[in-house]
Recover the amino acids of this structure.
């Protein structure tokens, strides 16, 4: 299983070249078409030995378990003036970045949260792994104002999350049998899934409002209204 997706720009033109293909698993050209890189995603699988030239070396110190997804862009761009690039990321490329991320999240059971889907510029901020002079995407590629890679990443992740829907938060390969019994006081990703399904604020904390929503759901479905989410309630929720 792969642990994360790292978003990049190649620093080149809108069309991938051989160097780019060797460095990333998937590359998106200026028209939004997706190209496979030289190395299979599995070449970077956790536990696989990383031999130079035989895996996609896209994120220093963090290649194991990381899928490298790049937009072919930013040749000639400099941090002080990203728009100096004659190959600035196109809207089609960013749309394709979102769709490809959605597909990879589904295929590998990756959740679109900061620690697991992030731009290269976010890596040191979120994961504490130092990168030298990497600023993909520390510039406005959608609507987020300013040059805050986390805000820009959050905006892209929100799009991915919307496209994935509620089910996105489940690790895809997690057997249903492992879904935890939740009651008031619980917290975490499973609570967020529950809250989304119940259409209450998904802060990941099972408080009185979530409990009230569970109770009314259980009553509506003629289940035992105990406010506890076990296998029967999960199943009734379609999860
Ligand atoms: Zn990069």
């Amino acid at each position: 299983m792969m642990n994360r997706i790292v978003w990049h720009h190649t620093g080149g033109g809108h069309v991938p070249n051989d160097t780019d293909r060797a460095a990333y698993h998937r590359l998106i050209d200026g028209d939004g078409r997706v190209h496979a890189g030289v190395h299979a995603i599995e070449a970077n699988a956790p536990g696989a030995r990383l031999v130079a030239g035989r895996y996609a070396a896209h994120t220093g110190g963090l290649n194991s378990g990381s899928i490298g997804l790049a937009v072919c862009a930013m040749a000639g761009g400099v941090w002080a003036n990203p728009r100096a690039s004659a190959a600035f990321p196109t809207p089609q490329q960013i749309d394709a970045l979102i769709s490809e991320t959605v597909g990879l999240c589904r295929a590998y059971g990756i959740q679109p949260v900061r620690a697991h889907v992030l731009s290269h510029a976010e890596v040191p901020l979120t994961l504490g792994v130092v990168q030298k002079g990497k600023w993909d995407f520390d510039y406005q590629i959608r609507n987020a104002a300013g040059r805050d890679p986390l805000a820009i990443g959050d905006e892209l992740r929100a799009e991915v999350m919307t496209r994935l829907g509620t089910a996105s938060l489940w690790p895809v390969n997690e057997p249903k049998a492992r879904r935890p019994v939740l009651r008031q006081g619980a917290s975490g990703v499973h609570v967020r899934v529950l809250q989304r399904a119940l259409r209450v604020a998904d802060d990941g904390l099972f408080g009185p409002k979530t409990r009230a929503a569970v109770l009314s759901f259980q009553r509506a479905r003629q289940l035992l209204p105990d406010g506890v989410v076990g296998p029967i309630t999960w199943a009734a929720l379609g999860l």
Remarks:
- The longest strand covers residues 4-9.
- The mean pLDDT is 91.
- The beta strands are 4-9, 26-28, 34-36, 66-71, 117-119.
- The helical segments are 18-23, 91-108, 123-127, 149-164, 189-198, 208-220, 231-236.
